[in-house]
Amino acid sequence: MFDFSADKTVVTVLAAMIFVCLFSVHVFAAQLTVGFVAGGEALDDDTFNGMTISGLRQLQKEYDLKVEVSSGGFGFEDIRKGLESVIKRNSDVIIINSSTNIDEIIAFTQHYPDLFLLSMMLA
Question: Into how many domains does the chain fold?
Fold first, then answer.
């Protein structure tokens, strides 16, 4: 089991590895749009959000990848608006970091069966 408080980098690197394995280079031949929904506003610090953005920007440099970001509060209404925002921007994959509202997030995303959701639900 990972000690999330000790080394967030391991989780972020693991997520990036899963992402690259699931979507081969062939998929990247047509531009893929990744939506990232961040709980909270901090995107450029040493948090899960900051490290996820950093990893997505690196993937964006290596592949023809479009990244759409939505950040806001931690309540489900804020997260719902973030999910709707990246869905409206035609995201093929949605990554979400959240430690709250897990049941609501899962219920919401079930309305979009064609989307691939990579969720970092941290407790």
Answer: 1
